[in-house]
Amino acid sequence: MKGGILNPDNGFEAAVKNFLKDVMEKADIDALLLPFKNAVGDSFEWRLVTADKLAEASVVPPVIAVNGARALSSITRSGKSAMKIAALMRPCEARAAIELSKLNQCDLEPVVLISMDCPGAMPLQDYIADPEKVEKEFEHAAREWNNELIRPICRMCDIFTCTESTWCDADIHVALPETENNAVAFISNTDKGREVLEKVGIGREEELGDWQKKMNARIEERKAARKKAREELKQHVTGLNSLSDTFGSCINCQVCRSVCPVCYCRQCLFNSVKVHYAPDDYLLQAESKGTMKFTPDTLLFQTGRMTHMSVSCVGCGACEDCCPMDIKVAQIFSIAADETQKLFDYIPGKRDAPPPLRVYNEQELKEYET
Amino acid sequence: MKGKIGVFICECGPNIAEKVDVDKIVDEAAALPGVAFVAKHKLLCSEDGKKFLKEQIEEHGLTRLVIAACSPKAHESTFMKVCEEAKCNSHLFQMANIREHCAWIVENKEAATEKAIRYVKAAWRRVGYHEPLAKKEIAVNPDVLVIGGGITGIEASLLLAHADRKVYLIEKSDALGGKVNEFEKIFKNMENTADMLAGKISDVEKNSAIEVFTNSSIEEVVGFLGNFTVTVNKKGERTEIRTGTIVVATGYDSFDPLKAPKYGYGKVDNIYTGREFEVLNKSGKIVGKDGKTPQSVAIINCVGREEMGYCSGVCCLSSIKFARYIKEKLPETEVVNFYREMTLPDKGYQKFFEDTQEKGVNFIRVKSVTVDNSDKGPMITWQNDNGDEHRNVDMVILSAAMTAVNDAETIADMLKISRDETGFFLEEHQKLAPVSTATEGVFIAGCAQGPKNIKESLVQAGAVAGRILSLLIPGKKLEPEVRTSYISEAYCIGCRMCLEVCNYGAICFDALKHVSVVNEIICRGCGNCVGSCPSGAVQTKQFKDIQIHQEVVEVLR
Amino acid sequence: MKKNVLVIGAGIAGMETSLMLAKAGRKVYLVEKSPIIGGNIIKCEDVFPNLECATCMVSPIQQEVLKNENIDLLMLSRVTAVRGEAGDFTVTVEKKARYVDLVDCIGCGECFEPCPVVLKNEFEQGLMDRKAIYLPCAGSLPNVPAIDTDNCLRFKGEDCQACKEACVFEAINFDEEDETREVKVSAIVVATGFTIFPVAEGGKYGYGSYADTYTSWEFERLFASNGPTGGEIRKKNGEPPKSVAVIHCVGREEKGYCSTICCMSSLKFVHYLKKKIENISVTEFYKDMCSPGKRYDKFYREIESTGVDFKRFDTIEVTSDNGSAAVKYRQNGKEATVSADMVILSLGLEPQRDSKELAEVLGVPCDTNGFFKEENDEYAVVDSTKKGIFVVGCAQAPKDVQTSIAQAQSAAGKILSLL
């Protein structure tokens, strides 16, 4: 893997901010989209800023409050932009942004999308309760690569970086080769990314062998963790009874859907009149089954939503962060997504791959034909 | 329940009456809310039955109809016509199939009756949610634009012009005639083509209804059946032509033997493609690069067949024709034809082959064949059941496969038609619709549709004329399908999934509102878009989610 | 000058021409000699190369023909005289009585059982019986039987009313009379289709001598779900075959031409066999594999990949050998024998037996093979030598469905343009 290395004086965060400043000045960018700690200090928010505000930005925030893809999409989804934006976010967020661009909910043309090596994120609710404590834990987790402290969904994530095996289609990826000098490397994945690095004056030809080796080892660890998680979770969702139990505490608030970056519908089918039935229909159903739970159709919503977005699920964990009932939504959906994505040989976040629903293959899923 | 619903149960003679308790169905139907009238009849589709239906609708002022009878495939249109005559909107009507789905397949009478009752109730429930769809009519332009001035385009133009249609014939080269210009004779009668072709071209030029554009290409196509606008570019000068239908008669290109190096093309002297040989033959002197008359000529078939994956159907015959050319002009020259399968379909070509054999042409079946250089000129090596053999010849002719034209992809994109895996334009149905495409108003004919000989191309030109003359009649308006899809602007978020899966190009994107929009005239109501929309913003009229849902709920109650 | 058109033959080509002309507003007289429409294609269960259901494919066309107000369908009819010229023909059509009312009959089939006359069903290639009041096959369209007056007892002088008594709808009327109609038309389209090469019994192909030798049509009916065995492929002893030999080009030498579609049909038979019988072994004996066009090579490869033994032959002979068939063939001087317990003969196509008769009535010549002769067999293939009379489909030469449809549409196009 090759990239351009910057040897900074003041740590990687400063290096990245300097880079972003250069990007604004030299690469013709009008604004930056970055995470900032909010005024109260108990969460983070995305702000569109110019370089003078860089000092207060947080390059790798400890939590994902609003998913970066959602923030970016809310700017660029309606129409063409003359303004150029550079946005820095975690690889899962960047993948979600690319998925949204395929669904015409986010225009990436005026955007330089930048991802960075992600050490994981902390549970959002924990952070809000005690920001200082969780911040310290995050620093520790990031520095030591301590997986026990980060969210369960992050513990099984193997797309946190951009090596040759686990690529990320953002225009530029920021890697931390972790040499003695805390150097920062910039890898370009697209022509746009290459152009930006050239304009900023960062080369692209240095070998990042050590970094790649270290990252690959970590990827293997996470893959193993993912496999183990799958075994564990499978028991909780195999068969209608288990599924029903696992989602038994779901209150159908549909927050998981509203925070999900790839759930883009204006009105969710499972929230529309199409699933509102006549009272007598419910009464009859309750009568025939002996009893019935209300509000109805929770499982329908969960499995239905899964059917609709599973091939695009990037495992960002926004759903689980926000679930008021602490259901392992992200973990379950992410493992299910592995299966559905495998069926169609589809990897969300890959720029040139069209969503499976749009692709016609004469021979497909033959094993499921009767 | 809306309106006054009428329920009619047809006994279909003994078909339904014997297998199902019709009276019980009548009773159950009469008890349903909103049902103003129930009746059974021996045979509703008969003249008597239809009369009865009309009378009852009018007498009782029925506004919605349920007919429990046979399959909608059989008589839905019959009953819809009765509705129209009785001034009841024909879409406020639903059939329940109690014959094919109940009487004919359920043995036990009680079970069959129970099922039939469910079906009738389901139809009753559904019809309450039906909407009175109005008929649509659109004015159309009966003119035709033909792309390609080869034999197919010429023939189609002549037939259409003769039927008083205005025809725009667009040809990219500077003259009409296409590939047939290249041939001295055609198989199997070995007749000279020049007179035939010149005659047809002269007919085109004399015909005032045909406007010919040579040195022209198509730049843009917008619109739909009956209402296309085509931009034609003639040496920089642009013309916008309004037309009702478009015919793609762009012909073919030939497989480039450089892609199959085993045949030695480009490396070994005196190897010609079939078309290059036609030029040589037409010049009057069949000689090699060195100007010498060949004493032996090898003709190799199936060049490009494996690479392209199909048999062009005409090369075996072309090869035989080349053999004949040589035998006519150079009777002393030896001719050997290497072939894999001697493909001689149709009634006259076997005799053509046998007669050519008698003229002394040697036909050798091979499994594979290669051509290399040697100091004695081209050397042919071939494999068959006897093992490997080789010999020298003075000249080699490669009968190469027909391929789609090089700019087929551009044309397909512009016209919103598809190509199949062979690269030729895709016909609407493999067997039943060879000259139309899935895009209404755009037709394909001749080699643009697939490799074929002149005779078949002329036939397809006639077929296109038939399709167009029976489709767009001057003064007559088109009645497009009314049960089309539509997109709710409020729910659509513009992800364009529906647009991508629409086979007919019926959906476009409104960038201003950031929503997708269905063109009701092109839409065929197939419902692919409905399946692709996660939020349910797309619905198909008469097949809305709620209509289907109500039907299913009632059946399963 | 009338603009009506007469179409002879209600097979796939005849129906297509009729529908296109009707759509354009012409009145069409569609004359069909049998009591049903659909022609030969409805004998097949599936069609190549997409292997879709033949009846499903054709049924919407048949339904449309039956319903279309511009088409006057005359079944059990023949053209017996033609006078006049292009633009103004007067045609005499002899319409035999059906004796069953097309409107009143609902096709319940109650009339068959009581009929005492048992005959061989021609549509089913003699593999099944029919009665004197009959429908050629299950699912016929129109679904209304006809009485075969050559064999019906009543029409031979006896007092039998069995069918009439069984009919609840009073649809049977023995007093119906044959009709002679004279119609004026501006053009005539001949779409009489084809029949198969009459392979001789006891000849070199083993037909008639080895019990389980079937013609291609007989085999189509064996596989057909509405056929004599309900789609089960069985030998005469009731058991499924273990090995089948499909022989191409039967009749090719004798006729002197290639029938174009038999190679593809033969490959389709492999699909039929493998669909019904597990582990069946199939050997295809062929001379040249005729697979022209953009789809057929692919079909050939697909069938080949299912596991078929292909053997080329110059000469071939089938004899009976100890309960199975011995297929002896010569190729390139070498001889070999393959054993099989079922043999299918892919027969060549030839013009209908009454083509010559019809040609004389129309005043058009036939070519040396007996097909209706074209004005120019390379440039004007759907035009006969007589202006105003067109020939389409296999009446002109053997061809596949796609080309027949193209020709049918082409004749309609020419009529709409020129006549």
Describe this structure as you would to a colleague.
The complex is a heterotrimer of chains A (370), B (557) and C (419). In chain A, 42% of the residues lie in helices and 11% in strands. Chain A has 370 residues and is an alpha/beta fold. Chain A folds into 2 domains: 228 residues, no CATH class; 130 residues, no CATH class. An 8-stranded mixed sheet of chain A has the order 3-2-4-5-6-7-1-8, with helices on both faces. Chain A starts with a strand and ends in a 27-residue tail after the last helix. The mean pLDDT of chain A is 92. By secondary structure, chain B is of the alpha/beta class. Chain B is built from 17 helices and 28 strands. In chain B, the strands form 9 sheets. A 5-stranded parallel sheet of chain B has the order 9-6-5-13-24, covered by helices on one side. In chain B, helix 6 runs antiparallel to helix 17 and helix 7 crosses helix 8. In chain C, helix 1 links the parallel strand 1 and strand 2. In chain C, the strands form 9 sheets. A 5-stranded parallel sheet of chain C has the order 5-2-1-13-26, with helices on one face. Chain C has 419 residues and is α/β, with parallel strands linked by helices. Chain C contains 9 helices and 26 strands. Helices cover 22% and strands 29% of the residues of chain C. Classes of the chains: A alpha/beta (370), B alpha/beta (557), C alpha/beta (419). Chains in contact: A-B, B-C. At the B-C interface, helix 4, helix 7, helix 12 and helix 14 of B face helix 1, helix 2, helix 7, strand 25 and helix 9 of C.
Spell out the blueprint of helices and strands.
The complex is a heterotrimer of chains A (370), B (557) and C (419).
Chain A: E1 2-6, H1 11-26, E2 31-37, E3 44-49, H2 68-76, E4 85-89, H3 91-102, E5 111-116, H4 124-129, H5 131-144, H6 152-155, E6 172-175, E7 184-188, H7 191-200, E8 206-207, H8 209-237, H9 240-246, H10 255-259, H11 279-289, H12 298-309, H13 318-322, H14 329-343
Parallel strand pairs in A: 2-4, 4-5, 5-6
Antiparallel strand pairs in A: 1-7, 1-8, 2-3, 6-7
Helix pairs in contact in A: 1-7, 2-3
Chain B: E1 5-10, H1 14-17, H2 22-30, E2 35-41, H3 47-60, E3 64-69, H4 72-85, E4 93-97, H5 99-103, H6 109-127, E5 144-147, H7 151-162, E6 167-170, E7 185-186, E8 191-192, H8 194-206, E9 210-213, E10 216-224, E11 227-234, E12 237-243, E13 245-248, E14 253-254, E15 271-273, H9 274-282, E16 296-303, H10 305-308, H11 315-329, E17 334-339, H12 349-358, E18 362-365, E19 368-372, E20 379-384, E21 387-392, E22 395-400, E23 402-403, H13 408-415, E24 442-444, H14 454-471, E25 485-487, H15 497-501, E26 507-510, E27 515-518, H16 528-532, E28 538-540, H17 545-556
Parallel strand pairs in B: 1-2, 1-3, 3-4, 5-6, 5-13, 6-9, 13-24, 15-22, 16-17, 16-22, 17-18
Antiparallel strand pairs in B: 7-8, 10-11, 11-12, 14-23, 19-20, 20-21, 25-28, 26-27
Chain C: E1 5-8, H1 12-23, E2 28-31, E3 46-47, E4 52-53, H2 54-67, E5 71-74, E6 77-85, E7 88-95, E8 118-120, E9 129-131, E10 133-134, E11 146-147, H3 162-166, E12 179-185, E13 187-190, E14 194-196, E15 213-215, H4 216-223, E16 243-250, H5 252-255, H6 262-276, E17 281-286, H7 296-304, E18 309-312, E19 315-321, E20 324-331, E21 334-340, E22 342-347, E23 349-351, H8 355-362, E24 374-376, E25 380-384, E26 389-391, H9 401-418
Parallel strand pairs in C: 1-2, 1-13, 2-5, 13-26, 15-22, 16-17, 16-22, 17-18
Antiparallel strand pairs in C: 3-4, 6-7, 7-12, 8-9, 10-11, 14-23, 19-20, 20-21, 24-25
